[in-house]
User: Which sequence fits this backbone?
């Protein structure tokens, strides 16, 4: 049993009945986290459950301490998003006069983001993050989570066989209307936030990258369906219609809504997720409302990312 369940004033429960991933921890505070054994227990719970919802102490410091139980913090690559005096925290914000909007299946949504892995468009995907609300909208604004170990388990044997040694190409294009596998929806870009408009000017300064479609969680030996519909361009080894059809088939398993957990935020919530194994998405809010979230970026590198060299079309070798 995880020792978090035995701490005074702390409760450890499933995230949702019948959901085979995720955990909820109630009542944990910074005092508990002074004990290294408790910090290790948070880490072990993340490896086992993939997503942890915390209700308890609600401060920048607690958000940073929970994050540091998993690893060092890193600065998100876009300074436009950093919180003043706290560059290890970013603000994910939507304001009617400064927010990114998409039309999704005919509905205009502020701050909508399809299923994705953070920083999948770099060769070193970050380990995870902790999200926490600063300002919530009246409507919408949920964050979805999907476990990709379970997604792999759902794959038919023959599909597992076909994708075993393949890699997916990812683009740093943050215009998610250009994501070809973003949840089988009709998506149209309407306008970008000021930070979006600055970041996207540098889109061609970043290389395309590759990640394997399947990898093994080293702590447990479980296989992960390592596919982010957001930012995906295609299969490296299989361009054209055949690769597109295969990736569309894979996407139907990894982004299956039947197995998703959607978090409806309340003030004081924090959610930690394993970015190497869990997809997340933002459902968006009405375009005339406001929403601001704080997020940390927990450092790490599973060492399987590769940069694609423009000059040769070959993969840049990275030490493993
Ligand atoms: Fe994200």
Assistant:
């Amino acid at each position: 049993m995880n020792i978090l369940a035995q701490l005074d004033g702390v409760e450890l429960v499933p995230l949702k009945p019948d959901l085979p991933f995720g955990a909820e921890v109630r009542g944990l505070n910074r005092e508990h986290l002074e004990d290294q054994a408790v910090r290790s227990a948070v880490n072990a719970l993340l490896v086992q459950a993939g997503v942890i919802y915390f209700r308890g102490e609600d401060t920048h410091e607690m958000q940073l301490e929970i994050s540091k139980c998993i690893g060092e913090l890193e600065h998100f690559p876009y300074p436009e998003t950093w919180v003043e005096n706290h560059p290890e925290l970013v603000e994910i914000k939507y304001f009617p006069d400064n927010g990114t909007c998409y039309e999704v299946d005919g509905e205009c949504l502020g701050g909508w983001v399809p299923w994705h892995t953070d920083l999948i468009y770099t060769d070193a995907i970050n380990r995870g993050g902790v999200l926490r609300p600063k300002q919530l909208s009246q409507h919408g604004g949920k964050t979805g989570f999907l476990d990709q170990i379970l997604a792999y388990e759902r794959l038919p044997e023959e599909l597992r066989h076909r994708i075993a040694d393949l890699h997916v190409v990812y683009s740093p294009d943050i215009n998610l209307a250009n994501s070809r596998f973003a949840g089988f929806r009709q998506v149209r870009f309407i306008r970008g936030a000021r930070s979006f408009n600055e970041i996207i000017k540098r889109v061609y300064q970043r290389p395309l990258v590759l990640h394997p479609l399947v990898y093994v969680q080293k702590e447990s030996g479980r296989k992960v369906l390592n596919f982010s519909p957001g930012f995906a361009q295609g299969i490296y080894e299989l361009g054209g219609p055949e690769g597109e059809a295969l990736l569309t088939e894979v996407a139907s398993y990894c982004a299956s809504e039947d197995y998703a957990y959607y978090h409806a935020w309340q003030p004081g919530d924090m959610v930690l997720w394993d970015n190497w194994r869990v997809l997340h998405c933002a459902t968006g809010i009405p375009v005339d409302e406001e929403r601001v979230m704080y997020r940390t970026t927990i450092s790490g590198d599973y060492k399987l990312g590769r940069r694609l060299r423009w000059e040769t079309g070959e993969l840049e070798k990275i030490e493993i």
The mean pLDDT is 91. Residues 3-74+85-307 form a domain with the Double-stranded beta-helix fold (CATH 3.60.130.10). The first helix runs from residue 36 to 49.
